[in-house]
Every structure is written in C-alpha cells, then in structure tokens.
Amino acid sequence: MSAYTSRIGTTVEGCSFSRIYFVLEPGEKVSPGELVKVEVNRDIYVICRVLEAKVVSEYDKPSRVYTRRILRLEANPSDVAPGRFVLVEAETIEELRREENDWKVTNVSSLVAAGSPVYRLGDLAKLLLGFPPEDRGLHIGELWTGTTSGSCPVTLDPNEVLPRHVLIVGTTGTGKSYALGVLAEELSKLGIRHIHVDVHGEFLTAAKELGGKIMVPGDDLTIRLSSLSELELIELIPGLTELQSEIVRRAFLELKKAGGDFTVDDLVDEIERVAPLFRARNDTVLNAKARAALLNRVRIIGRGVDWKSLLDKPTFIDIDCRYLIHSELQALTAALARELLELLRDESVRKRLRGVVLSIDEAHLFLPPRGREFAPSASVLGEVIRFGRHYGLCLVLITQSPMDIDRRVIRTTNTRLIFAIEPDQLEALRGVFADAPAEVIRNLPKLERGVCLLTGSRETVRHAVLLRIRRRKTTHGGETPKLIENKGDEM
Ligand SMILES: Nc1ncnc2c1ncn2[C@@H]1O[C@H](COP(=O)(O)OP(=O)(O)OP(=O)(O)O)[C@@H](O)[C@H]1O
Ligand SMILES: [Mg+2]
Question: Which CATH class is domain 153-223+306-469?
Fold first, then answer.
C-alpha cells in the first residue's frame, strides 16, 4: 500500500499530541472534516481531521489595507504574495505505524516537528476506519473532501453494521431515499435479503431492475389477524365505545391465547362468547360484533403470506404502500415486523436465511417519542431495535424528522448517515455524532445534496467521516417533479 499521495502542506510550530497546525501548499484546498496524514518518519504517520483554516496575510493588516485603499493601491487578492498563506488547524485522531511491512493503528504518541510534510490520507483511510475489502462490503460511496474526486471508497462491513441497525436522516430532498437505493443495490450484490416498506412507491423500478419482487398490500400481500396486537386491532375498527373496545379486546386476546390462526368471523363469534363477562346490553354487543365484522373490509387483513418461501432465495421485496391509509400502514408494518421476528426465532430458518434487512421510510410515523402521539407499531419496532440483532432482523430507518422519533431508538441505531439537516433538528441527534468535531456538526445544515456525515462505533465506523454517496446503478424513483420547464427542457 502506498503511503504517499500528493503533498498538501507543511506543519508549523505549536503542534501537540492533540492539535496539528500546517500551512497549505499554494493552490491546494481542504475542508472541515477532511482526513490528512502527517509524516513523522517513513514508518510513522499521525492521522488528523481538519477543523478550521484561516487566511494569514502579513501585508493585509487593517492599517495597511486602509492606507492602500486611500492611496488607491489595492492589492489583487489572487496574487500569491510572500507572507500571505492559509493556516490549517487539525485535530489528531490516531497514529499509523509500519511494523514488518504492515500498518498498525495505535494511539497518538508522536509529537510532530515543524516542517513535516502533510498529505491527503488516500487509501490508508480504509485501514484507519476499519473498512472491509469492497467485494465483501457494502460500497456506498467515497470519503468526501469537498475538493478531490476519487478519494477513498467507503465500504461498510455487513456483519457488523446491519445487525446493529442503521439510521438515515436529513431534510427533505437531501438524498436519503437515493442512499437507500444504493444500499439496496449493495445488499442485492451480496445476496442479503431485503424488504422495504415503500411509503411513496419510489422503489418500484429499482425492484424490477434488481430482479426483486413488488408486493401490493391487499392484493398479493395480506397479514394475519393473529399477527396484530390488540392495540393495532382496535385502531383498525372505527367508532368503538370504551366498553365495546374492552369486549373486542378481550375476545381477541382469548383467541390469541388459544393459539393458531383465526378469522374475522371467529372474532365475531368470540365477542358473543365473552360479552356476558362484561354484563353488556344486547345492543352494545350487537354493535361491537357489527363493527368488528367491518374488519372483513380491511383489505390488508387476510390469510397472510408464507415469508419462509418468499425469502427462500436472496431477494429484494418492495412493499408498495402508496394506497394505504395511516392505520393500515401502521398495522401492516407492525405485523410484518412481528411475522419476521417469529420466522427468525426458529434457529434452522435463521441459519438458512442468515438475516433479513427491513427498511422503513418515514420512520417517524412508526416510532414517535414516548408520551407524544400514540403509534401502535412502536412497541414491536422497539422490540426489533432491542433484540433484532440476536435474530438477524436488521432495521434501516429513514426520516426527515429525528425530533419526531423516540430518542432511545435514535441512540440504539449504531450506524448513521446524517444528511443536511435543519439546525432545530440537531438537538434530537445529540449523542449520535460519535467523534465528529463541533466545526463539522455546525456545518451540517449546509452539506450539499448526496453528502452526509457517517458515524458509528468501534465495530462499525471507527471515526466520524464525511461521505459522498456513490451514483445509483438502478433508477431512482423519487425525482422531484419540475413545476415549470427550464429553458432547453424537452416539452
Ligand atoms: N447522491 C446523489 N447523487 C445524485 N443525485 C442525488 C443524490 N442524492 C439525491 N439526489 C437527487 O436529489 C433528489 C432528492 O433525493 P431523495 O429522493 O433521495 O431525497 P430524500 O432525502 O429522500 O427526500 P424526502 O425526505 O423528501 O423523501 C432526487 O431527485 C435525486 O435524483
Ligand atoms: Mg425520500
């Protein structure tokens, strides 16, 4: 592995174990968050992250600028004048030491002398960040430097990253769904099973291109009544009085206790059977039965599907949820998570499938903060977040509003892609920035589309870095429609 790329700077006095200062070579550029390496000697490099840069100019002290202005002797700012340079401040992260021709990552123990050369990090980033080789990892993009293209590929280790769950956040239109598309391509490449709850129908074309399957709730995808929790069930039956919901709930729980599958008609019969326990009037019971019977009209409830055979071969399954109403979407997602957990609890199935990725767009609809509005799906998804790792059920949550998601969920996800986000949403993300410096966090609202902060832990992404998502190979279905034609656009 070559340790050298082009030299971009030279250190100056004042470097310490934690801070490095260097003067940038004329014509070079750096940006906050960029990783660079400082050569201590041929076998030792100190790795640093750029924090800030400032222009220093001996000739542009306030009094001189003022005098030149008065005398109309203004200097051209693009002139390379002696005494005018860019001074960069960087924080040290780790040290790379060559031992018997192998590079080892260690804590910083070398002091950098003034005059040491500074280089872009290049390929050594893979070693520093703990990335696996591209063909065995999820290649989702390149390290973003803001200046150089073709920098180090960013590859995530599926065995470490996926079971610990992934969070993708950012303001609308910043590139979250696009990034999920890249992830879907990579999962498909590695033969990892993936199911997407497609709220906007953005992956219909990509699913076809990946040789996957599109399932339409109420058509070729239904959920079993027994897969619902009693709260999810009650949400699907409008207009129940308090007593009627008590009766329906009891009937439902009795059927669940008995085990096995049951139909809406079984539920109606059971309501009749348990009603005397509540000493309810006849018309109350009749109404409860009539309303419960309306479940026959809820198109997503039915015989269920056989996930075991659907997932027999590695595949991408896109669930087209465009036409579901909110309560159906909630019930479907919760039941889906429950059915997958149930499937993966069986050790032989688990060994065969080797895990399933479940991605959910608009995750704030399903996992609101505790004590705020109620979402029936929150409890089972919380269970997947906490225990899914043991069963190989991996969640990828996408949201534009982390403020509207349970804080504990945000913290439990271990790998995060944070796109440009409104300053008022930053607070909700506190605790997930890993070792990203304040300068980079402050700059998050200004990140360009398709660039995000990638953070993780020692097992996943060792240091917070800026990442440019790679180009999609499949079609992105979330194009923003143009309200007016631009000049030159085809009519
Ligand atoms: N990495 C990228 N490279 C090129 N184009 C991109 C990239 N990311 C996003 N885009 C473009 O930006 C637009 C919006 O991206 P995307 O649909 O991913 O936004 P989003 O963050 O999911 O927004 P929303 O929250 O509204 O769903 C798309 O039209 C897409 O083509
Ligand atoms: Mg989107």
Answer: alpha beta
